[in-house]
Amino acid sequence: MDASHTGDEVERESPAPDSLNRRSSERLDVTWLVDCETDDTFLYASITNISEMGIFVRTTQPLSIGTRLTLRFAPPGGDGSYVLEGTVQWINEVRPLHDNPNPGMGIRFVDLTPDDRERIVDTIRTIAYIRDAPVNSN
């Protein structure tokens, strides 16, 4: 594998079970802080993309595939914070020669309430709309 591979490419090369619809929803590049917590681990990292199905957490210390964790994050300018459950679906490990520009882990949301899913979709759509809005040059 060469240095041009991204997390998305690694994901396609090693798909996790139960992930057929993983890319069926809109994905948005972001830079948000996130707290990831398991029974015995606390990780402070950043989200680099989000969809209604899950997030990619950039970290040099990814958790094991299958690990269930609690995620806490608050989109800047958003309508409050999220506390959601997720499962690590795939990891993109740090490599010795530092030829991996995007180390981290793909996390799929689990047990989302309909309200949480709707809030996530609304947040994604709002941010995408703001980014695509024309800039007035008056």
TrEMBL record:
Annotated segments matching region Disordered: 1-22
One GO MF term: cyclic-di-GMP binding
SUPFAM superfamilies the record matches: PilZ domain-like
Residue span(s) of domain PilZ: 21-122
Classification via NCBIfam families: gmx_TIGR02266
UniProt-recorded name of the protein: PilZ domain-containing protein
Species the sequence originates in: Sorangium cellulosum
